[in-house]
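Chapter summary example: a protein plus N~2~-(3-carboxypropanoyl)-L-arginine.
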Amino acid sequence: MHLEANFDGLVGPSHNYAGLSVGNLASQNHANAKSNPKAAALQGLDKMLALHDLGMMQGILAPQSRPDLTSLRQMGFHGSNADVLAKAHQQAPQLLAACYSASSMWSANAATVSPSVDSADNKVHFTPANLVNKLHRAIEHEQTGRTLQAVFNDDNHFVHHSALPSHDALGDEGAANHTRLCRDYGERGLQLFVYGKSAYDVSKPQPQRFPARQTLEASQAVARLHQLDGKHTLFLQQNPAIIDQGVFHNDVIAVGNHNMLFCHQQAFLNQSQALDKVKNAFGDSPLYIEQVSTEEVSIEQAVKSYLFNTQIITLSNGEMALIAPTECLEQPQVAAYLADLPNRNQPIRKVHFFDVKQSMQNGGGPACLRLRVALSAQEQSAVNQHCVMNAAKHQQLSQWVNKHYRDQLSFDDLRDEALLTENQTALDELTQLLQLGSIYPFQR
Ligand code: SUG
């Protein structure tokens, strides 16, 4: 049996609000707010357990080691670890914050993943995203590669590529700009790559205010690496006007699952032509496109609520359910829309609401927290089983969080060497709980 697993990023012990992501309004609005790392990690674990309880295969991706001392030393801070932290805190607080971000929790940005049924060599392909647009994220991809190798560690089934060269022309944000539509997870699907700009084609419009993080050229390179069939691969441009309104990734305005595409009316450039292309490429079987009009939900409310950063999941009875953040209940248009959604002619029958507020305040909703990996039965058994969620694992990891995480963090706490030690102690223990081996630089 094929299924689509969700691998969520476990929130790291240094979760904080540093306002690092220009163009991501929640990140900017919460710059320097106090964060709650323990609550953040527990919220994430509870969502993972709930998905497991709904019958889904739910995986866990370990956080990255922060602060990233290698990067800080590369930037010229030297001496003991305490010296490095104190100097960076005093001389370049932005760089210290970048090297301390727990942003790897948003595993939708970890990589692009293609299932084996879509690839010419019949293997599952992983390409870590270079995330070049933001410094705090551009330092993630090497560790991402090591972590994915430790979870999907079998050459017979899994192919791990390096990230694309780190340059804006190949800016890649991973699965946040990638969706796959299919009739069944075990059948060849249609892979939709959504880009914000082209590096070279000047005829394509670009946003004026905020950066487009994903380029067409990067999406094409990933499709080549993954050996996808051109007939079943589409490249669509995101509407640049909404990037300027805070839609910094396509998964803030559109989400797909099986034969359903759920999107806002303004998600894509030249939307009706774009959706015609999707329908044609999908073929004859039924495809549900649920488009929400601007009248019904404004872009502003969509961005505040993360209505489209929801997860659509298919339950074992074939019905679909929507995993939504509780912020959707706070925006009146969105709450009204969701109350009516199950009555419409589309497959979602139920909406489940989750409190992931700690992540939401940095611009990460339920869908940002997960990387989708469609797997055959054989591939499922080739996954590192210690990274798969169940009730016992949830209990074990909740205890681990309660033992190691601080209740609260603010920027000045980042210069405290004790925080570094706490992070490393926690992650060292985690590699044993998840049986990952020595994946972190401090363990080598
Ligand atoms: O890259 N926020 C992340 C949020 C990523 C959301 N992911 C998806 N939409 N798939 C980002 O902008 C904020 C960090 C800070 O400001 O402290 C941050 O990195």
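Key point: The chain has a mean pLDDT of 98.
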